[in-house]
Amino acid sequence: MSEATDSPNISDLLWEQRKFPPSAAFQANALVSETHLYDIASEDYEAFWATQATETVTWNKPWNTICEWKSPYSKWFIGGELNVAYNCLDRHVEAGNGSKVAIHWEGEPGDTRTLTYAWLLDEVQKFSNALKGLGVQKGDRVNIYLPMIPEAVVAMLACARIGAAHSVVFGGFSSQALADRINDAEAKVLITADGGYRRGEVFPLKPQADEAVSSTPTIEHVVVVKRGGNAVTMHEGRDHWYHDLMAVAEPVCVAEPMSSEQLLFLLYTSGTTGKPKGIMHTTGGYLTHVTYTHKYVFDLHPETDVYWCTADVGWITGHSYIVYGPLSNGATQVIYEGVPNYPENDRLWSIVEKYKVSIFYTAPTAIRTFMKWGVEEPQKHDLSSLRVIGSVGEPINPEAWMWYHENIGQGRCPVVDTWWQTETGGIMISPLPGVTTTKPGSATFPLPGIGAEVVDEKGNVITRGGGYLTLTHPWPGMLRGIWGDPKRFQETYWSKFPGRYFAGDGAKLDDDGYLWLLGRVDDVMNVSGHRISTTEVESALVSHPSVAEAAVVGANDATTGQAIIAYVTLRGGASVSENDLRNHVAKEIGAIAKPKAIFFTPDLPKTRSGKIMRRLLRDVAEGRNLGDTTTLADASVVTELQKRAAESNED
Ligand code: WTA
Known about the structure:
Blueprint: H1 24-29, H2 36-43, H3 45-56, E1 65-70, E2 73-78, E3 81-82, H4 84-97, E4 101-106, E5 112-116, H5 117-133, E6 141-145, H6 150-162, E7 165-168, H7 175-185, E8 189-193, E9 195-198, E10 201-204, H8 206-213, E11 221-225, E12 239-241, H9 242-248, E13 258-259, E14 263-269, E15 277-282, H10 284-297, E16 306-309, H11 316-328, E17 332-336, H12 347-355, E18 359-362, H13 364-373, H14 376-379, E19 388-391, H15 398-408, E20 415-417, E21 452-455, E22 461-462, E23 465-471, H16 486-494, E24 501-509, E25 515-520, E26 525-527, E27 530-532, H17 534-542, E28 547-557, E29 561-570, H18 578-589, E30 597-600, H19 614-621, H20 636-650
Parallel strand pairs: 4-17, 6-7, 6-8, 7-14, 8-11, 11-12, 16-17, 16-18, 18-19, 19-20, 29-30
Antiparallel strand pairs: 1-2, 3-13, 4-5, 9-10, 14-15, 21-22, 21-23, 23-24, 24-25, 26-27, 28-29
Helix pairs in contact: 2-3, 3-10, 4-5, 4-6, 4-11, 5-6, 7-8, 10-11, 13-15, 17-18, 19-20
The structure holds 5'-O-[(S)-ethoxy(hydroxy)phosphoryl]adenosine (WTA).
């Protein structure tokens, strides 16, 4: 941003006073209810992580060095050997838990499958052998492009079992996005399906895969799972039905010990500019990080809990908190194939009731959608099984947090707002539900073993107010680089504040030392020299009882540098005037943050993982042609807003 700034730091406008300590009833059964993990970790974080690695993961060979840190590269548990699939499956079966349910799978049309740990182990061994039969070897890359079906989990674990790295591409991405990712990773095999269910219809995947593979010279074989039942063309010699391969696959594939730093997977993140980055994650450190965080952040009691994360396996949340964390911990979980409003807006709550879900993990975008649909939907169901509820993916506005707490958690369940990234591998900043007094909208504190600080523009540490979120020392699940692009790795994360990992997010600290995430710093607005975070203005808007969701951007303005433009979605049946809302913002956080204009809209433009795309709204507000829209979930939303912006300019 080029404008002169009076105060280079991000302003601190929002003041949230409500506090929620863990209840005595929750603490009585919690895995941790005291601060000892923090105390131990702050003395020696490496030793702390070594303890977690010993307690939560089974190793074939112990490591000789906990951590080697040659900035920006870290290695963890060097010399150690383990197999991730063994940790997620075999060890539970060996412990006598083979008949335990690993996955209650619910298809969108209502068909169900109940899968035990023993079944998963058999299936993964056979598919590992099938992949070997197609020539896949340790070190190869395998692409996965599947709907939310159990075979996605099987495919990932089979890769892990034989040491091939998977690269999962979200099933909603186009053939071009798939081709780009396959070519960057130089994958040998693609695993896809005929199609999957979404909003009551079959969406075809195989035709997309065919189109992609026509421009991916490295792909030798395509494996096709039958799910949608839609007609597909199979290419002789290249394409194989999953069920045909499985019918003849050998049943035993011994889990080969892998080095701790063996590449486990690549996962591409698009970011706002440039080509997608292939984020690299390895074996021992990653598994330790996700197993430990899944256990403590959700207070997991694997004997009794039923866990459900609503993410797609195509995102990091699906990798870490559907596949690797929960299975490594031997949890029982729900996986749901489809959308939350099929056949009706209460589908998720009917699933919670049906499977007696006790831990529920979703995204703010979903929570704000539930607010829009109204409290009647959850009220149709018995949600008394819930114990802990979590949030991830965007800052959660205090009012959305309160709605979640009251209407889903029924005032009883601790809310864990978890901050992390594809790059961090696992959760970094979050409450521990039996320990932390939460404040609505704050991710609270770094977890034991994690170092996070807020710094100003010059990199000086600040202890109060707004700035830039940085991570101060390596952690086991951290990315090991960007596939094929070490220079970009260095520049993106390590150049702004030397010696620190810069996450790209703004954050502030309050008087009690609580961390509040302020959104991507690229989105920060500059109004008359004040740097204002979009998150705080959006939260002020969402705190109005009529508002479900808001997106705020800074548009060029001759007088103030940038002017605040807001796009607002109302709660079902509610209405409010533009002026009332502007005054509400002024009252909540100050006149400086009053939007210059507010547009009401039934929907906001979002990425396919549900994050608001403010960059596009900025283009709309400034009357520019839209840049890259390929990551947009529903392009018609912006076209509609553009039309309305053009009309209002003519007025
Ligand atoms: C944002 C998702 C505020 C943040 C796991 C981060 C959050 C980006 C939170 C990473 C949260 C994620 N509060 N912001 N609890 N969780 N974010 O790679 O901007 O899809 O940098 O990983 O999401 O998104 P990613």
